[in-house]
Amino acid sequence: MNAKQLIAQEAEQMPEVLLGEVLDFMQFLKQKHRLVNLETMGLSQASLKKDGLSESNNKPLPKFGSAKGLVKMSDDFDEPLEDFEEYAP
Prior knowledge:
- The chain is mainly α.
- It has helices spanning 3-13, 16-40, 45-50.
- It is elongated, with a radius of gyration of 24 Å.
- The chain has a domain at 18-53.
- It contains three helices and no strands.
- The N and C termini lie far apart (72 Å).
């Protein structure tokens, strides 16, 4: 019996509630193996980022400043909080 058959046999006997965890682990192993292969081919995370690609799905990474204007900070952001006045010098 080969490894795939043994895994399938074990999966048949496993409770349904555990199969989700098994699937997650199998997907993790595939991703880990993929990253190891990319690094051995010289496609490290740094070189993928340099080309604007993400190692997980090869979609372009967001550009610096692309969220400008989406976040608003209050004018008194750096002011001390009243709750901590007793600890202030």
